[in-house]
Amino acid sequence: MDVYFSCSLTGGRQDQPTYAAMVAHLQVLGHCVLTAHLASTSATTADLDHAPEAVFDRDTAWLRECDAVIAEVSTPSHGVGFEIAYALERGKPVLCLAREGVRVSKMLTGIQHTGFEFREYGTLDEALERLKTFLGDPCRGTGS
Based on the structure, what is the number of domains in the chain? Predict the structure, then answer.
């Protein structure tokens, strides 16, 4: 399954090791992560040579192509919020994950679209299990 992984870039990178573990787990499960580069330590500098319009065009194309979106939303991000809305408007299944205890916008936690899930996690293992449950078997399609 082609997965679009979304996470905060400019809002803070304190969760980068978590992002990297999530992307690696998705890949081990057999999924193609279109945005795997976002989990790297160099993600904030990777697009410096690209015009904003080029990044927008590339990322929205990936959102249209993907089978599902996984968004780590513990750190607020304008871009992540946009990507979630863009995906939902195109009928893509979306899983938002947030660490237990962080404040997340009610605009996210209140979404009632079919195919949308918001889940908290206490440990990385819990987050990885939530990914696996949401996506299901990569040969069958989504698990939700």
Answer: 1
Q: What is the pLDDT along the chain (144 residues), one digit of tens a residue?
A: 999 999 998 776 788 899 999 999 999 999 999 999 888 776 555 666 778 999 999 999 999 999 999 999 999 999 999 999 999 999 999 999 999 999 999 999 999 999 999 999 999 999 999 999 999 855 444 454
CATH code of residue 49: 3.40.50.450
Q: What is the rounded CA–CA span in Å between residue 101 and residue 74?
A: 9
CB 69 within 8 A of CB 84: yes
Containing structural domain, residue 128: 2-135
Residues in the chain: 144
Whether 140 maps to a domain, the answer reads no
- What's this model's pTM, rounded to 2 decimal places? 0.89
Output the CA torsion 144→25→14→34 (10° steps). Answer: -80
**Is residue 141 included in any domain, yes or no?**
no
CA separation for the pair 21, 55 (Å, rounded): 24
Per the domain annotation, does 142 fall within a domain? Answer: no
Distance in angstroms (rounded) separating the CA atoms of residues 20 and 36: 8
